């Protein structure tokens, strides 16, 4: 797509009923030149027809992991090295996929770029993600690979004991692969990435000049380090306490350390920082405003997916121009809904449920 075509497409995206004359005035081109570019955009498949209806209007793009989550919870404590009766569940997961699913449930147009294996698990993951309302046309099934699996074992109180991720196919999301599925990157209102992406792929993305605001999820302490060279390119970052300490290079020992930590992130170029503090709530910071939100009193059914639902709430609030305190409350409500559900994502999530919850 040429620069002029990009200009025209983004003006049409803002106002699909815009006239060719107005397009010409906005872009400094003659009406004839505009008509020519519109014809080319239609030919290339970006415009569907009269009225300039955009093909696949994209609000949010998510690039990240798509996993099968297998979770085991024993009924009682036991000895290490022994097996125990309990429940084992299998649900769709993966940080990027979870965020995309939650965003679709919150009512947004969202496309997920991800990689699975050419196997039954991959088919089920794509099907479940599509049923939740996500555009799955950019999830590729790679032959010769198994779909990614995240295996977690909780204790009888539902706290995470240990988890293992087996995600080699995720490495297939190479710069070349991403280049092929992101010609329209500049059209989305936000790009959400997770650190399941390799360092080379993150480097490719962060060096692009057509990035919309980037929301980054650290995924885990082991993977958070991948973001360190790119903090100046990130609009919104959501680390938990451990991940924030690791990136900051100092340990957050108490509440009193949070403002200094947030300042450091803002100095690196982050506009919005949200540190998830587990059962201690959520710390939110923009350069001129900070808030420490106390936790909601809830009964936790499963800890998995809370941070991902929180991230979806952050994107949702940003698209809706919410002030910081509302943003934190909405995002925390999304996280709590995930925590109250047995499984990674709560199908009861919607913009209405969240509004009712924060106004209750
Ligand atoms: N036990 C809990 N009770 C109440 N709220 C919780 C609890 N655990 C987490 N939360 C809420 O969910 C958010 C995300 O959870 P957390 O486990 O910190 O996410 P992450 O996946 O980022 O580590 C927290 O910031 C907090 O608001
Ligand atoms: O290295 C990774 N670990 C874990 C996940 C995903 O993170 C979710 C659970 O993490 P949390 O409890 O932090 O929300 C699961 O869906 C799991 O598949 C992932 O994408 N990559």
From TrEMBL:
Superkingdom, taxonomy of origin = Bacteria
Q: What class of enzyme is it?
A: transferase
What biological-process GO terms show up in the record?
A: regulation of DNA-templated transcription
Report any Pfam family annotated for this entry.
PfkB
Which InterPro entries is this protein grouped with? Carboh/pur_kinase_PfkB_CS, HTH_CRP, PfkB_dom, Ribokinase-like, WH-like_DNA-bd_sf, WH_DNA-bd_sf
Keywords of the record? Kinase, Metal-binding, Transferase
Domain HTH crp-type as annotated: residue spans: 10-56
Tell me which PROSITE patterns the record gives. PFKB_KINASES_1 (PS00583), PFKB_KINASES_2 (PS00584)
EC id: 2.7.1.83
Cite a single GO MF annotation: pseudouridine kinase activity
GO cellular component, alphabetical, reads: cytoplasm
Q: What is this protein called?
A: Pseudouridine kinase
């Amino acid at each position: 797509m040429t620069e002029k075509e990009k200009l025209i497409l983004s003006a049409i995206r803002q106002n699909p009923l815009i006239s060719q004359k107005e397009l010409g005035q906005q872009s400094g081109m003659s009406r004839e030149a505009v008509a020519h570019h519109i014809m080319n955009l239609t030919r290339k498949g970006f415009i569907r027809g009269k009225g300039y209806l955009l093909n696949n209007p994209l609000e949010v793009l998510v690039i990240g992991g798509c996993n099968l989550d297998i979770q085991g919870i024993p009924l009682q404590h036991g000895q290490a090295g022994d097996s125990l009766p309990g429940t084992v569940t299998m649900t769709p997961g993966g940080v990027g996929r979870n965020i995309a699913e939650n965003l679709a449930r919150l009512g947004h147009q969202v496309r997920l770029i991800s990689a699975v294996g050419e196997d039954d698990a991959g088919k089920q993951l794509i099907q479940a993600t599509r049923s939740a309302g996500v555009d799955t046309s950019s999830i590729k099934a790679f032959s010769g690979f198994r779909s990614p699996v995240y295996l977690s074992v909780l204790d009888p109180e539902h706290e995470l004991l240990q988890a293992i991720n087996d995600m080699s196919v995720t490495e297939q999301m190479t710069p070349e692969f991403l280049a092929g599925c992101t010609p329209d990157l500049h059209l989305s209102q936000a790009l959400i990435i997770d650190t399941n992406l390799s360092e080379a792929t993150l480097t490719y993305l962060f060096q692009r000049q057509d990035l919309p605001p980037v929301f980054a999820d650290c995924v885990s302490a082991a993977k958070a380090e991948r973001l360190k060279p790119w903090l100046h390119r990130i609009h919104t970052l959501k680390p938990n306490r451990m991940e924030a300490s690791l990136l900051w290079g100092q340990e957050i020992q108490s509440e009193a350390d949070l403002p200094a930590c947030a300042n450091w992130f803002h100095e690196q170029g982050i506009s919005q920082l949200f540190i998830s503090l587990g059962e201690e709530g959520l710390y939110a910071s923009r350069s001129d405003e900070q808030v420490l939100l106390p936790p909601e009193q809830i009964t936790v059914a499963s800890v998995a997916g809370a941070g991902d639902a929180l991230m979806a709430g952050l994107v949702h609030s940003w698209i809706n121009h919410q002030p910081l305190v509302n943003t934190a409350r909405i995002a925390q409500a999304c996280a709590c809904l995930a925590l109250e559900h047995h499984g990674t994502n709560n199908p009861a999530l919607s913009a209405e449920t969240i509004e009712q919850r924060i106004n209750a």
